[in-house]
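Lab notebook: predicted structure, single chain.

Context: the supervisor wants predicted structures on file for every construct in the current expression panel, including those that have not yet been purified. This is the next one on the list. No modifications to the sequence; it matches the entry in the shared construct table.
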Amino acid sequence: MSLGADEPEEINANHKKSAIASSCSQQSNISSLLAETRDDNVNTTERLNQGFMQYGCSHYRRRCQIRAPCCNEIFDCRHCHNEAKNNINIEGKLRHDLPRHEVQQVICSLCGTEQKQVGQVCVNCGVCMGKYFCKTCKFYDDDTSRSQYHCNGCGICRIGGHESFFHCYKCGCCYSVHLKNSHPRVEGAMHHDCPVCFEYLFESRKDITVMPCGHTIHMNCLKEMRQHLQYACPLCSKSVYDMSKVWEKLDMEIAAIPMPESYHDKKVNEEETFIPRPNRVQDESPLMRRNSTSTGATISPAATESKQQAFLLTR
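Prediction complete. Output recorded below exactly as produced.
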């Protein structure tokens, strides 16, 4: 009887031992799976980062090349294509730019595999072809220090960070948030060439500034204009800078010039503007003198003065 009563206790003990062993085995399997997962993650990360910032061109750092849909040739980027296919050494009818949104074929720079569709990771070697990737623009860039972002209003990628810029739908481009409530709105302000170097501003990679009149220009071109003492907008001739100090200085210089003695006693009525009348003999043209001699008539001072006034108004 005593042996029979002890059997359930032994059975329970055996069950506990087997359960503990099974639990330890499961924990061991989980640990091994986690270790394998960590190894896989490390390998995946290493694979993705392979060749980072080691490939590209003078325009962008990227680990891929693009096949131009227009001429079926391979280039590092669209700027490389445009420099090669749209310069003065190319026959006029053959010049063209690469349509960025139409790119459909990309070649990995590490393994040389041409992708079946545009993507960020190579389908063959698993390398990340660009840390920044825009599927709309087919744009790759490993250098993310420029804070690239895609603007739906512009339809292209910009740099500088989305939080630092806003899209003006009147001007048709992105401006700094500092100009949001202060810039003059000019329709299509960026959709034209720079008035100095004639590069298309909307897609330019150079810094662009907005002049007080609302027209846009490259920052370097504006600085070059200033070096050549050109202070007016090349498009509308409005002052680019505050010229009030310059005009004040000119007024002071004019005021310092002594008045000729012949005008010392001259006075100007409040309702009339005084226009000094030069000597009639010096003022008359040969035609006027010939007409007065042939007809015996003389031209009155009032008529001469009216002609001078008309000249001043129309010149």
